[in-house]
Amino acid sequence: MNYQADLNLALELADIADAISLQRFRALDLHVEDKPDRSPVTDADRSVEQALKKVLAEKAPADALIGEEYGNSGSASRTWIIDPIDGTANYLRGVPIWATLIALAIDGKPVVSVVSAPAMGRRWWAAPEVGAFTRDIDGSTREIKVSAISELDNASLSYNNLQLWDQAGLLPELTDLSRKIWRTRAYGDFWSYMLLAEGSVDIVAEHDLKIYDIAALVPIVEQAGGKFTALNGPLSAETSSVVATNSKLHDSVQKYFS
Question: Is the pTM of this model over 0.85?
């Protein structure tokens, strides 16, 4: 199957999202609310999702949509999955590490995706038969591949909030793993996974995610040669705790959490 048209549409959506989100970034009148789950949402989150939803209704009317802010619409084998701003807490504090996540899943499997981080001047995308690519801050494009690190003691791990590991009852396991590896950092959100796909990080593990947090990350990691699963099993639509690696380290890492 040729996914180029779908990828082109995803890239077009990313251009639209960037124009909206970047204009509101660090705006003095940015409106912020707390959602029922206590996570923040800004007027930029909502404006981006509304704009992308409108374009998809025009250009892919038969496809379903899952969005973080406005829920699900339609039912089809093809589903677009959108997180208008991944890293909203960074966005509202003026930290430039945030991105729009756009994915197309077919029969439940994310296959095409774009991650666009305009405040960083970066973008990543992937599709089958295309591979995984990034656009650097200088505007140049390059194909990306995961690292070839095969031993834990040479590996770099990025994890999310330690409080979430503690709440999941897995902080001792994370600590044990950290003792076996070379380096630990908490780069956070989409950025950890993009560094993995580029070969700069070897392991990423994270808790408390939703499908719109995950879907766009999967094709980029996988097309770059990595592996992306639940923390202790296969990935599913209900997965909230994940681990992604350069493939070579995956089994060794999962043993710590099984």
Answer: yes
Q: Give the other-Cβ count within 10 Å of 22's Cβ.
A: 13
H/E element, 253? helix 250-254
Distances (CA, A) of 54 to 13, 58, 65, 90: 10, 6, 11, 26
Angle at 101 between CA 96 and CA 107, to 5 degrees: 165
pLDDT at position 37, please? 67
Take residue 44 and report the two structure tokens written for it.
């930029």
Distance set, CA 257 to CA 171, 177, 222, 254 (Å): 10, 9, 21, 5
pLDDT at residue number 34: 80
Average pLDDT over residues 237-245: 93
Question: For 189, what's the count of Cα atoms within 13 Å in the CB-facing half-sphere?
Answer: 19
pLDDT at 19: 96
Delineate the domains of the chain, giving CATH numbers in brackets: 4-143 (3.30.540.10), 152-254 (3.40.190.80)
At residue 195 the predicted structure's pLDDT band, cuts being 50, 70 and 90, is very high
User: 227-230 and 242-245: which strand pairing?
Assistant: antiparallel
Q: How far is CA 10 from the centre of its chain?
A: 14
Among 51, 46, 126, 136, CA closest to 91: 46
pLDDT digits (tens, 9 = 90+) for 5-16: 999 999 999 999
